[in-house]
Structures are given as C-alpha cells and as structure tokens.
Amino acid sequence: MPEAQASHSNELPTAIAHLNHTVVFARDRRLSAGFLAAVLGLEVGAPFGPFLPVDLGNGVTLDYYEKTDEPIQPQHYAFLVPEEAFDAMTGRLEALGVTYYADPNHTEPGRINRLFGGRGAYFDDPDGHNMEIMTRPYVRP
What we know:
globular
C-alpha cells in the first residue's frame, strides 16, 4: 500500500486521501444547515436523498441529516476561513444573537483568539456542535 512521502523539511506530504463529505446530525437539518451557511456566507445545496448539503467550496460538503430518535452527540468542526472574511462572520454571529468565544470551552465570551498569528472563534450551532472559525491552521508538532 502506498504511503504519504514527507521529507524532513517543511514540505507537506503527498496526499493519499482527501475528505469528500461528512454527515452532521441535526434535529432540524434545514435550520442547522441554514445557520452554518449564513455564518460562513455560503449556500445550502439541494437535498440529496435524506441529506441537505453545505458545500464548503473546497470539494468537501457537510451533509446534514435529521436525527430525531435520540439525542445529538455534539461534535467539533473547524473551518479555515480567509482573514478578510473573519470580521463578517463574527458580525453575522452577533446579528444572529449567537455568542462566540475565544476558547473551545466557551469561557471567554465575545472574544477571539490570536493563535499562530491568525484569529479564531468558537460558537455553538443549533444542535450544540462546537464550531470554530480560524484564519490560520494550527501548527502541529
């Protein structure tokens, strides 16, 4: 089986797999997909079977799926966004009456972080998923 090849320099490894889509459970798929699309400045796509997609514009969709028979287990979704779009996104959160936080534990309301030379914020979606917008990817060891 082929493996990603990475040198010991700062080069990125050759991609073997790219995320294409993931399912996001929601009590109301239209409400949750519409919320995220509104915050990120995107559109909700046409239904695809039981799924309602939000196309992130990089070949990945979040496919919202209604799950009403049991509680939703909150997940974390992080979005790398352009620096020039960040203020508009936090402004849309404020207009929607949604509090954003500087930290993933939601202890610093109304603040942003400045990790790795960028800006970031966390917020809950209608189902309690912990969403994150950030302008710089995290530096990993």
